[in-house]
Amino acid sequence: MRDTCKNGLIGAALLMAVGTSAWAAGPVGPNDVKFEDATVKASLTGQPGDAAAGRKAFADKKLGNCLACHKNSEMSEQLFHGEVGTPLDGVADRWKPEELRAIVVNSKQVFGPDTVMPGFYTLEVGTHVAKNFQGQTILTAQQVEDIVAYLGTLKE
Amino acid sequence: MKLKSILPVALGALAIGFGASDLRAEPVDDKLIIDGEKEMITRTKAPEGHPFDEVLSGWLFRTPETRAMEADSFQNPAMLYVERGAEIWNTVDGAAGKSCASCHGDAAESMKNVGAHYPKWNAAAGKPYNIELQVNDCRAKNMQAEPYKFDHADQKALVTFIKHQSLGTPMGIDLSQGEMKSWWEKGKDLYYTRTGQLNLACASCHEANAGKYIRADHLSQGNVNGFPTYRLKQANMVSLHNRFRGCIRDTRAEQPKAFSDELMALEVYVTWRGTGLSIETPAVRQ
């Protein structure tokens, strides 16, 4: 009984974390995302992203925290934009949506293994992941779609 | 600093963190002279085999206000902890009825330049010792007193006091003793190992991106020559292993325990990376 409970819990945790592919209509799991020539063609959720929600997730320190490394003039109300990554002004003029999706899901698939940009929807992560983050992606599939939709608005 | 003269202080801070790219990109060209008398080595040629040509103190990456605070020992809030350390040095503790001074006398002489050459191989323990471990050894063996728990206020004050006796002395450790070289190797491996959900190594921030801003923080080379440092954010002294643990936590990884083999190996390697920089203890950081 105890074991079943425990397994049940772990199972549930995994389902939540992975945003499972076991549910027919659910989002694609992080291990099942298909990269083709450094692009991810289809929406991870089958749904279009919400750019307004994406704008929030982009800035949220616990979610995208993209401003830690990227300057983004469209968000000039936020103080302190980092400069570790490329400024994202006009990023939609440089990359197609399916390329932006690939960058956010797992930047290493696009920029190579040496990039310092974290992968936001991948389980290929560093060693000794803290317990409360194990088996989890930084963003959910929908948050990735939302951020991709928001990036799509950054044109010059 | 042109900006500062035309803007109120709060806006000045904003401008430094944001937008004013001429001010923010590089470490400053400035000299650290404590109380107008004692010049610190804040940049020096890197030792052989180092990834950089030049080794830079974290002081060069801080704001003008923070730099000024460290340069003036009356303004430096950490000098209170040096005084507290001197008090502890002279206070009897433990069953043997001794103080540090009972055996070591005047720290200005007995501890002069000692801290600049730690970590040091400790043959009896079979591993490198930092000042914290050495002090705990003396407390246990020589004073019959309880070793300090990690980051006990007295541990930080005493270590700050001891390191301060090396103010200005170039850091340099002896890798030829015991197995120091293999600990250095292990520390180097750890320095380049990406950890946590964010998948970042020490080198991702302090080597690949030194000199750049990560959000509001100006990334330095991550040198250890100022430790324990006074952090304005915490309004308190921060020990080296506390800083290491904080940086590791920020990658969303499990934090190794203070004084664990992992963190001692890192301390050996990272201390070597700062070879030749003056001990600045107690340094002031953001």
| Average predicted local confidence, pLDDT of chain A | 89
Under CATH, the topology of the largest domain in chain B can be stated as Cytochrome Bc1 Complex, Chain D, domain 2
Intertermini distance of chain A = 60 Å
Count of domains of chain B? 2
If classified by CATH, what would the architecture of chain A be?
Orthogonal Bundle
Q: What structural class results from the helix and strand content of chain A? A: mainly alpha
- Largest sheet, strands/sense/barrel of chain A: none
CATH class of chain A: Mainly Alpha
> Class of the largest domain in chain B, according to the CATH hierarchy?
Mainly Alpha
Tally the structural domains of chain A: 1
Domain Cytochrome c (chain A): 49-155
Organism (chain A): Thalassobaculum fulvum
Protein name (chain A): Sulfur oxidation c-type cytochrome SoxX
Keywords (chain A): Heme, Iron, Metal-binding, Signal
Would you mind describing this structure in some detail?
The complex is a heterodimer of chains A (156) and B (286). Mean pLDDT of chain A is 89; it is low at 1-23. In chain A, helix 2 crosses helix 6 (141-151) and helix 4 crosses helix 6. Chain A has 156 residues and is mainly alpha-helical. Chain A has helices at 2-18, 51-59, 91-94, 97-105, 108-111, 141-151. Chain A has one domain (28-151): Cytochrome Bc1 Complex, Chain D, domain 2 (Orthogonal Bundle), CATH 1.10.760.10. Chain B has 286 residues and is of the alpha+beta class. Chain B has a three-stranded mixed β-sheet with strand order 10-9-11. Chain B has a two-stranded antiparallel sheet with strand order 1-2. A two-stranded antiparallel ribbon of chain B has the order 3-4. Chain B starts with a helix and ends with a strand. The relative contact order of chain B is 0.17. Chain A binds chain B through residues 65, 67-69, 79-84, 116, 118-119, 124-131, 133, 136, 138, and chain B through 14, 17-18, 24-25, 193-201, 204-205, 208-209, 212-216, 219, 249, 251-254. Chain A: Residues 1-24 form the signal peptide. Chain A: GO terms for molecular function: electron transfer activity; heme binding; metal ion binding.
